[in-house]
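ugh ok fine here u go
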Amino acid sequence: MKQLIQTIHINQQAYSTEQAKRKHSCTTSPLQALFTDLYGKDSFAASLADFLAEWFDEQPTLKVHTSGSTGTPKELFVEKQRMLNSARATIQFLGLKKGDTALLCMPLPYIAGKMVVVRALTAELNLQLVTPCGHPLQSITQVPDFAAMTPMQVFNSLEIAEEREKLKQIKHLIIGGGAVSPEMAAILKDFPHAVWSTYGMTETLSHIALRRLSGADASDWYTSFQNVRLSLSSDNTLIIDAPSVCPEVLHTNDIVTFNEHGQFHIIGRKDNTINTGGIKVQIEEVENALHGFLSVPYLITSAPDLKFGEHIVLLVEREKPSNEELEKAFSQLPIYWRPKEIIVTERLPQTGTGKPDRATAKRLAKKD
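structure:
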């Protein structure tokens, strides 16, 4: 695999790629040793040095973890060359350039964090490290040119005036790892710089399509990168053919529609469809319709039903809303979308990347 640069910039300090390499697989690299001394063995900086050592070793592949949003998390081995291809596609689409700063605030076991580093290596960006947390902009003094954040991190930043102003100053903000709510999209529409929602998965080495959230070009439709071919299955689920990043054609569980320009809109996941009395209800559509009408965090799931096969369940965090609030919220829904059961849980289930853990939510509703 051809390496593109000889220097890595981390927190405005330059390190040679030779420092990131291990002489032997059983030894540590100079950068690993340095970062362990400076920040501690279990620090985020040390984990970055570990990833760089793995990136620069002789193996053509490396290990990534899936998020487990709809099932058990698993490990995949992906090709470094294809990661480089993915990085180039994003750099070209966004117009990132040498010397731009890039915020790294995503966990490195997952593809999103790894790809921020690979983009920095490819475009010679200056990595700005913030240990993954709910408020990554809280302590930064220099606003990055480019940032990749989760919806939860963006939501938290919008809640704090100082962080919100920093968020507005980011020139290229991509949001991935979960759905962007209509309320959040409405706020981001007025941001002065480019804000994007991403579409992708571990198998596609981060995103293969972006949806503009800010400015006059804000849209509900995703635009795919060049050399990505998309089609529909007989179940109206998305099929992805992107050979530069994935060797196999991917049959997703995402139900989508296309417009005349070849852009696509996500309706929801096939495995998030509830069949209640023969009527198919999409979980994401119910959740979107309830946005702004419930004062507590919530998820929609389902439970077995002797008569209807399944019934719709509303999971709420910590306390049940008042009857008046529930009545107003449910009045926004068609009758067959309305939850038949409400379950209070101490904490809504989430994956390690902050996505709703649908499998655990369904187990909670099943009560077994």
